[in-house]
Design brief:
Layout: H1 7-20, H2 32-39, H3 43-55, E1 60-62, E2 66-68, H4 74-98, H5 101-120, H6 123-141, H7 144-164, H8 173-187, H9 191-218
Length: 219
């Protein structure tokens, strides 16, 4: 176990990586004994970590059954992306209004990592870069309640992405363009354009994800 990390945080990061790498199937029960063996953590530390993952939306803890990886339906995905569209439009509007020159420089660096990962189809790099982007966006909002809600929605989205979207990343040229439009609008300090670009970017990503989910269901 990594000495540099508190036990609970190590558990969270280890299990988060396993879930996003599809080591567990949607709907699969997560057996505590197996997870303790995998992470080297005690049951107490494991349960603390599982509660954090539940707050992030990456697992569900079902009474009398225990933790499972959620099995999301196309309707779940549609609802998630619709709510994200509303929230991210507001967050992007705020960012366009409040971003400093230093913030914009940081945003451009993050955006380069996002688009590079999308072009190359590097799943791990994309997840890391998008996490950096949302950390940046939420930091500028300075709204703890919005941050809690967004973190859970992003966790749910991360479950959708590996199983539906990321395999087709290089083909999603439109996704790269909509993200670039969003970054350009924020950097230009244009709140209305940033809000519109955020809605377009999120809803476009949702349409792409739903189409892929439906194709996968038909195979």
């Amino acid at each position: 176990m990594a000495d540099a990390l508190p036990v609970r945080q190590y558990v969270v990061e280890a299990l988060r990586s396993e879930i996003l790498a599809l080591r567990f199937a949607p709907g699969e029960k997560l057996v505590e004994r197996r997870l303790c063996e995998m992470t080297g953590a005690s049951r107490t530390a494991l349960r603390e970590g599982l509660r954090q993952l539940e707050a992030e939306g990456l697992i569900e803890i079902i009474p009398n059954r225990g933790p499972i990886v959620p099995k999301l339906t196309p309707k779940n995905a549609q609802d998630i992306y619709q709510l994200r569209g509303v929230l991210e439009a507001d967050l992007s509007r705020q960012a366009a209004q409040s971003a400093t020159g230093r913030d914009v420089i940081a945003l451009r660096a993050i955006a380069e990592k996002v688009t590079s990962a999308m072009r190359s189809g590097d799943r791990k790099a994309l997840l890391a870069a998008k996490s950096d982007f949302y950390d940046w966006l939420l930091r500028l909002s300075d709204n703890d309640e919005t941050t809690v809600v967004m973190r859970k929605l992003l966790g749910r989205t991360a479950i959708i992405w590996p199983s539906t979207v990321l395999d087709d990343m290089p083909a999603n040229v439109h996704g790269i363009q909509t993200f670039t439009d969003l970054v350009d609008a924020i950097a230009a300090h244009d709140p209305d354009r940033a809000a519109h670009a955020a809605r377009v970017q999120v809803l476009s990503a949702g349409e792409f994800a739903l189409a892929h989910m439906q194709r996968s269901a038909e195979m």
